[in-house]
């Protein structure tokens, strides 16, 4: 009953035609593309060895089913890989949600996408949104800052790049993902947690004033500079008209004029925190030069040669791009044009700023190389509109070249850094960004008050919420991050029970409670531990670490009160030397399809191994056999429990379905009526389980908030296996039939945000 949205905006057309952002003769195609719906795109996460198996499964099974398929007399278009994305790991399809529901073959494909997204094996993300992380050229040792990270699809890409080598459980690099919106930070946690990495930290700050962090290097404090920074700033979003139809009606130049100042402040703060030789990618989903080239030109001008635009024309072959523009004008929302700052009347000088205009000096303009920026136009490769600029930092920013005496006043804020090889040679020049004088005075006073408390808490390994009066805290009050002391009696039985390697970094274990029984043990990398311990007073951390052990009262009688958690098993496995059972593919199928199978159902080899092992938590490992190419060709590690007469796997539902699919087991059930009747019994189980929960930990908060947010934006709540309690799986695991039926419920993983696709599942 809603009126059809008219995809017309005269001011939009007049503005961009005048600026000439579209090549001559292509305006009609450009506008026609903007009026067409955006194709859905998906990305296979590339850091797991399972990526190739998922790709094989997609191409050999699901795509083949779509060949020659007709729905309502119309031939279904085959999904196509994005030619410029490495290793065929990104695909786009014109299949709408309506069409997906009409055919059983298409619905099976749809359910595959839903379930794999929940596992973190597939990410639904707009094609152009995948470009900035690729241009960052991330290596596993890089320290990365994502300044405006929510809802998290680009952050997920960065995490995958850190884990390029799955044999390294703790890469030396890490991602600090920041967002100014407290609620959206939980959406970010929800996305990042699907990837089960110990190298991600989510923080809640205004990106334009994100604090300098410190790290401990050989006993002395040094300022943390980042090797890579992703600066995907808030923007007017007129490149997203194909999915955000409201933009047609609401578009005006006023949006860009209001955002320009914020975008420039965020980008400036980013380059201040970038290491010499480091790379920062600035991006927007806008076509407006006020938000794009004007910001970059202003940044380059005030950097006085400290920054340069990188030439990335040879990167991402196959991606059609337009060069950045060097001439533009400024227009008010009433259609009035200005070519130079001097033409702007005084009553308009608060709306229009000098930094919005192009540089007049031809030599300066030429030296900036603005044509090295990338402009992505919708009609070239059937995408959204996008802008990307890649900046390299050659030397410290001119306003940061302070005299050495400033260092003596605030020793805790100063120091060199050796983040990259480029600045290790001339570290003495790399002077960190200093706070303003007012901040200096205030921080001196605060320092005197806080010094004793802070030092004491660091000794205890506690990173509490920041006490600084300056910092306004919104949203949930976060629990502290408490690292286990070296002599904690809690760890000895765990170490003995699982025969942990002497190299196991137990100092990296943390809990979220200071008092009472520790229910969960989490783990972070050594580098993130360093960041946490040295910055708790100036940083609001929302979440970090992956769950590696959960308390299980039944386990105490078998020698260990903590059982393994599936989320952290790939990180822990290299350090475990006991309680590992190697299983064949038939055993894996039994474990994943039956709730509590008797030992007699397993192969004789498995029965022999189990015979001599005490009851309790175990690791179940499947190694592929190269001589059987038809079998699953990637290793699998599962958490399990050995009882007196049975063996079971503790694996979240969607992860079970994922492994079964990879093994060629059909897990799809199309009868929705059966699903509805069975879901009632599941609800009863969930209610009884809820009564036994001992209060909420941080994961409950995240899940509740994500569910609430998705309800607010008209999407159905998502049920992430990562956030479901492992105890629930332990107490009640449905049989496969029920699991696969329940897997058919609609799930959404993406926020309705300008930088990701809002395809609903």
UniProtKB/TrEMBL annotation:
List its EC numbers.
2.1.1.203
Record's subcellular location: Nucleus; Secreted, Extracellular exosome
Keywords for the protein's UniProt record, in alphabetical order: Methyltransferase, Nucleus, RNA-binding, S-adenosyl-L-methionine, Transferase, tRNA processing, tRNA-binding
Which biological process, per GO, is one annotated for this protein? tRNA methylation
Q: Which residues form the active site?
A: 285
Write down the superkingdom of origin. Eukaryota
Q: Name one GO molecular function term.
A: tRNA binding
Q: Tell me the segments the record calls region Disordered.
A: 399-465, 671-761
Q: Does the keyword Plastid apply?
A: no
InterPro entries, sorted: MeTrfase_RsmB-F_NOP2_cat, MeTrfase_RsmB-F_NOP2_dom, Pre-PUA_NSUN2, PUA_NSUN2, RCMT, RCMT_NCL1, SAM-dependent_MTases_sf
Can the keyword Transmembrane helix be found in this entry's annotation?
Answer: no
Give one Pfam family, short name only.
Methyltr_RsmB-F
Q: Which SUPFAM superfamilies match?
A: S-adenosyl-L-methionine-dependent methyltransferases
Compositional bias of kind Polar residues: 739-749
Instruction: Show which residues constitute the signal peptide.
Output: none
* GO CC field: cytoplasm; extracellular region; nucleus
Q: Which reaction does it catalyse?
A: cytidine(50) in tRNA + S-adenosyl-L-methionine = 5-methylcytidine(50) in tRNA + S-adenosyl-L-homocysteine + H(+); cytidine(49) in tRNA + S-adenosyl-L-methionine = 5-methylcytidine(49) in tRNA + S-adenosyl-L-homocysteine + H(+); cytidine(34) in tRNA precursor + S-adenosyl-L-methionine = 5-methylcytidine(34) in tRNA precursor + S-adenosyl-L-homocysteine + H(+); cytidine(48) in tRNA + S-adenosyl-L-methionine = 5-methylcytidine(48) in tRNA + S-adenosyl-L-homocysteine + H(+)
The family classification in the record reads: Belongs to the class I-like SAM-binding methyltransferase superfamily. RsmB/NOP family.
The protein in question is named tRNA (cytosine(34)-C(5))-methyltransferase
Could you tell me which species this protein originates from? Mesembrinibis cayennensis
Q: Which gene encodes it?
A: Nsun2
């Amino acid at each position: 009953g809603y009126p059809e949205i008219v995809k017309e905006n005269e001011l939009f057309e007049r503005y961009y035609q005048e600026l000439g952002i579209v090549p001559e003769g292509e305006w009609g195609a450009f506008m026609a593309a903007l009026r067409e719906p955006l194709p859905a795109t998906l990305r296979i996460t590339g850091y797991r060895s399972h990526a190739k198996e998922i790709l094989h499964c997609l191409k050999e099974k699901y795509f083949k089913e779509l060949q020659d398929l007709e729905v309502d007399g119309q031939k279904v278009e085959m999904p196509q890989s994005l030619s410029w994305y490495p290793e065929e790991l990104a695909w786009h399809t014109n299949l709408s949600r309506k069409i997906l529901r009409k055919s059983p073959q298409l619905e099976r494909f749809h359910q595959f996408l839903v379930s794999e997204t929940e596992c973190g094996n597939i990410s639904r993300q707009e094609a152009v949104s995948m470009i900035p992380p690729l241009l960052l050229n991330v290596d596993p040792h890089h320290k990365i800052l994502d300044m405006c990270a929510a809802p998290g699809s680009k952050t997920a890409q960065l995490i995958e790049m850190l884990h390029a080598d799955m044999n390294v459980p703790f890469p030396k690099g890490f991602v600090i993902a920041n967002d100014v919106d407290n609620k959206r930070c939980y959406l970010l946690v929800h996305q990042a947690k699907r990837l089960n990495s110990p190298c991600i930290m989510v923080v809640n700050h205004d990106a334009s004033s994100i604090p300098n962090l410190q790290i401990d290097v050989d006993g002395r404090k040094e300022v943390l500079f980042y090797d890579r920074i992703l600066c995907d700033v808030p923007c007017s979003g007129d490149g997203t008209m194909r999915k955000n139809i409201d933009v047609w009606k609401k578009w005006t130049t006023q949006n860009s004029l209001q955002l320009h100042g914020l975008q420039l402040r965020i980008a400036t703060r980013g380059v201040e925190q970038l290491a010499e030789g480091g790379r920062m990618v600035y991006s927007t989903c806008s076509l407006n030069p006020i938000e794009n080239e004007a910001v970059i030109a202003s940044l380059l001008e005030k950097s006085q040669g400290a920054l340069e635009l990188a030439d990335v024309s040879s990167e991402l072959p196959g991606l059609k791009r337009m060069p950045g523009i060097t001439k533009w004008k400024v227009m008010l929302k009433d259609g009035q044009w200005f070519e130079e700052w001097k033409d702007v009347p005084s009553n308009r000088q608060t709306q229009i700023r000098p930094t919005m205009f192009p540089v007049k000096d031809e030599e300066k303009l030429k030296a900036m190389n603005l044509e090295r920026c990338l402009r992505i136009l919708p009609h070239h490769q059937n995408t959204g509109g996008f802008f990307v600029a890649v900046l390299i930092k050659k030397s410290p920013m001119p306003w940061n070249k302070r005299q050495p005496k400033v260092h003596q006043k605030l020793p805790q804020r100063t120091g060199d850094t050796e983040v990259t090889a480029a600045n290790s040679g001339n570290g003495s020049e790399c002077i960190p960004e200093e706070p303003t004088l007012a901040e200096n005075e205030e921080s001196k006073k605060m320092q005197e008050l806080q010094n004793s408390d802070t030092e004491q808490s660091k000794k205890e390994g506690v990173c509490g919420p920041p006490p600084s009066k300056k910092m306004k805290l919104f949203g949930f009050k976060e629990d502290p991050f408490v690292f286990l002391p070296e002599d904690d009696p809690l760890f000895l039985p765990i170490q003995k029970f699982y025969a942990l390697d002497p190299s196991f970094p137990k100092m990296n274990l943390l809990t979220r409670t200071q008092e009472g029984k520790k229910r969960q043990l989490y783990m972070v990398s050594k580098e993130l531990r360093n960041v946490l311990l040295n910055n708790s007073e100036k940083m609001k951390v929302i979440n970090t670490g992956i769950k590696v052990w959960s308390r299980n009262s039944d386990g105490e009688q078998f020698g260990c009160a903590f059982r393994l958690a599936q989320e952290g098993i790939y990180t822990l496995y290299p350090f475990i030397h006991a309680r590992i059972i190697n299983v064949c593919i038939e055993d894996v199928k039994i474990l994943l399809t039956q709730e509590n199978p008797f030992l007699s159902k397993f192969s004789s080899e498995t029965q022999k191994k189990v015979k001599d092992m005490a009851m309790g938590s175990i690791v179940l490992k499947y190694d592929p056999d190269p001589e059987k190419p038809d079998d699953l060709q990637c290793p699998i590690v599962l958490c399990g429990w050995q009882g007196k007469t049975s063996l079971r796997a503790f694996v979240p539902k969607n992860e079970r379905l994922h492994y079964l699919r990879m093994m060629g087991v059909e897990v799809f059930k199309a009868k929705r009526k059966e699903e509805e009747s069975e879901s009632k019994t599941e609800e009863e189980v969930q209610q009884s389980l809820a009564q036994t929960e001992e209060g909420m930990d941080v994961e409950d908060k995240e899940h509740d908030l994500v569910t609430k947010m998705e309800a607010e934006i008209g999407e159905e709540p998502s049920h992430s296996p990562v956030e479901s309690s492992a105890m629930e799986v332990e107490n009640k695991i449905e049989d496969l039939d029920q699991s696969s039926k329940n897997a058919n419920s609609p799930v959404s993983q993406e926020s309705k945000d300008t930088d990701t696709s809002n395809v609903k599942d």
